[in-house]
Predict the structure of NAD-dependent epimerase/dehydratase family protein.
Amino acid sequence: MKNRRVLVTGSAGFIGFHTASLLLQSGAQVLGIDNFTPYYDVSLKEQRNAILTNHPNFQLGRLSIEDAPALERAWRDFAPDAVIHLAAQAGVRYSIDHPADYVGTNIVGTFNLFELARHNPVRHFLAASTSSVYGANTQMPFEETQRTQTPMSLYAATKGATELMGHSYAHLFGIPMTFFRFFTVYGPWGRPDMALFKFADAMLRDEPIDVYNNGQMTRDFTYVEDLVRSITDLISAVPGDTPVEGDSLSPAAPFRVVNIGGGTPTPLMDYIAALEEALGKTARKNFLPMQAGDVPATAASPALLRALTGRAPITPVKEGVSAFVQWYREQAARDGVAVANADH
């Protein structure tokens, strides 16, 4: 990775921060792009960014990927040889009430990046998609070659649309492109709107947690450090002419999609139990029906990821949740917030 010049969009976000950190540790030069949108507490993004800016090989472009002229100036000045596009308007449920945000960031912003890659070639363009594109599929584990034409939310639809747009750019302009589909990522420095963060916050305030579908849900939870290791591993797995076993490599373009998940789905109630153990508190649970746009289960097939990189996410949920709780307590202490240590 040494001497690589990597442009990372969404660098102040949860996954972007961890990705940029690992790239910097590996000796890469990194340009982070982020507009610090107030979708959640901007101070958390500023704290992540402050850690990155302490590294001499990091520089920040504080701008929106929807701002094509500003994005082009930053791109040309930095001259990346690889792009990792992680900036997005996230959240399944938020997309129901704020659809325009998803069209703007996820589709228009991604289009702007494709256009820049078209006119300023890079060795590899990598971009984040989501397990949500599998939508109404019930055959599990999810494999990259399955149909993804039944999205259950606008968020999923916009991410699926960018995959299709990416394939067309890869075909027309020969841009080597990989889309990776994330499976319920969690860990330190996570977003406050994510379940683990919300559960921990509520439990430490002695408030009930909302558990949807009456707890009858299963997720292929992916620890963030495993995820970003897979992302950086894939930089060198440039789509070419020769497929590996079970490949999603397009017959018409240097393009593939890859699941990043461990293939070990965990029941939601076990996930909550791991949090209860780590916090030393029993959650008061408010059982609710399934939310609109959600799905009862996800499970990744990690076979293609292993074939391309030699490994896949392996961190057990109990271990990952414990690491999150340690960070959460340290973060609360930095913010001057008292948190309980055990049942009382």
